[in-house]
């Protein structure tokens, strides 16, 4: 069994290694839930619980895809609170601070149920096997792809094709560029341990944002004329940019709201059912400004910015495009999964 933390141990997480660039650990639990159960985990309605904190951009992707595809009835959703210590995310928003389905206080318990000496970070999103209480996977890039390709039998009527075969190579190429320079790029700025590594990440981030500004000036979505996996992956970073990354992570050449094309693109997606209805700005701000105490030791959470700007018309319809392709928008969120209105 994993040795418990000594009584009185400091459980404050730390993210910056002095003198070093930020290096994300991308070694995840690579098991997959598939129709052929190749890893021992078959597609099975009601068997699995997606644990996805509102605050986390990587988890946010899975919540969006689950909504767009209508998988709410077959994959339940556990929502940890916005802050965590070194030992993991907790279910402090639930009655008794216990997940009502898994019966655990910490996501760590599901990891340790399968790997008693799990040596890496306890991350979200994670999918947990409800009968055994064991984590199945935390491999977030694969989770959304599998929602799109392995759970097809349980997609809602009118579900969009978020990973169309004819565009997969381009989706993967764009998503890879966006991951290195934007999704992870903001973290490489914020968690940089030296001036040199910070400036290198800063320059790569804004060079890529300029590239995206140009690419999206004449097309409504990143790849093809419909929403795809590539748009979802970019959106969750853009949604947090002005509220967190601009100030907290020192990504301050300009705000998202000062880049007219990207700002309109982000608003277009935010106002699309399945996107903005997964965003909780207060939880997002609380996560970053409270959890990252080595960056913000005071723990003070900014009052702004005013999020109502996300509701201003984007005008992106003039570029054409069909957000859901031949499909339809998802219905309203489940009552227990609604976020506060702006």
TrEMBL record:
Chain positions covered by the region annotation Disordered: 301-342
PROSITE patterns reported for this sequence? GST_CTER
Provide the GST C-terminal domain boundaries. 164-288
Q: Which InterPro entries match?
A: Glutathione-S-Trfase_C-like (IPR010987), Glutathione-S-Trfase_C_sf (IPR036282), Glutathione_S-Trfase (IPR040079), Glutathione_S-Trfase_N (IPR004045), GST_Omega-like_C (IPR047047), GST_Omega/GSH (IPR016639)
The record's section on CDD domains has: GST_C_Omega_like
The UniProt transmembrane annotation reads none
PANTHER family linked: GLUTATHIONE S-TRANSFERASE OMEGA-LIKE 1-RELATED (PTHR32419:SF6), GLUTATHIONYL-HYDROQUINONE REDUCTASE (PTHR32419)
What is the recorded name of this protein?
Answer: Glutathione S-transferase family protein
Q: Which species?
A: Cryobacterium glucosi
């Amino acid at each position: 069994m994993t040795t418990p933390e000594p009584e009185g141990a400091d459980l404050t997480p730390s993210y910056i290694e002095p003198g070093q660039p930020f290096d994300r650990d991308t070694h995840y639990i690579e098991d997959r839930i598939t129709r052929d159960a190749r890893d021992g985990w078959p597609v099975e309605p009601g068997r699995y619980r997606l644990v996805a904190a509102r605050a986390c951009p990587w988890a946010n992707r899975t919540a969006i895809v689950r909504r767009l595809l209508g998988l709410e009835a077959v994959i339940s959703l556990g929502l940890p609170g916005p802050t965590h210590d070194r030992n993991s995310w907790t279910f402090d928003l639930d009655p008794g601070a216990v997940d009502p389905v898994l019966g655990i206080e910490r996501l760590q318990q599901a990891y340790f149920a399968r790997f008693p000496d799990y040596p890496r970070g306890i991350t979200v999103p994670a999918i947990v096997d409800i009968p055994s209480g064991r984590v199945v996977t935390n491999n977030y890039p694969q989770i959304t792809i599998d929602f799109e390709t392995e759970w097809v039998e349980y997609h809602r009527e009118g579900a969009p094709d978020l990973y169309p075969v004819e565009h997969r190579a381009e989706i993967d190429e764009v998503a890879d560029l966006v991951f290195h320079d934007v999704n992870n790029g903001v973290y490489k700025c914020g968690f940089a341990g030296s001036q040199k590594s910070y400036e290198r990440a800063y320059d790569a981030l804004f060079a890529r944002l300029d590239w995206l500004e140009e690419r999206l000036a004449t097309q409504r979505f990143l790849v093809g004329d419909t929403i795809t996996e590539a748009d979802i992956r970019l959106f969750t970073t853009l949604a947090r940019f002005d509220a967190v990354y601009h100030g907290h992570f020192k990504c301050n050449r300009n705000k998202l709201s000062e880049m007219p094309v990207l700002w309109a693109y982000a608003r277009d997606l935010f106002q699309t059912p399945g996107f903005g209805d997964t965003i909780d700005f207060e939880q997002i701000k609380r996560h970053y400004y409270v959890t990252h105490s080595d960056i913000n030791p005071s723990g003070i959470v900014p009052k702004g910015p005013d999020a109502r700007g996300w509701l201003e018309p984007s005008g992106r319809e003039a570029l054409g495009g069909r957000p859901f392709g031949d499909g339809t928008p998802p219905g309203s969120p489940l009552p227990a999964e609604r976020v506060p209105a702006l």
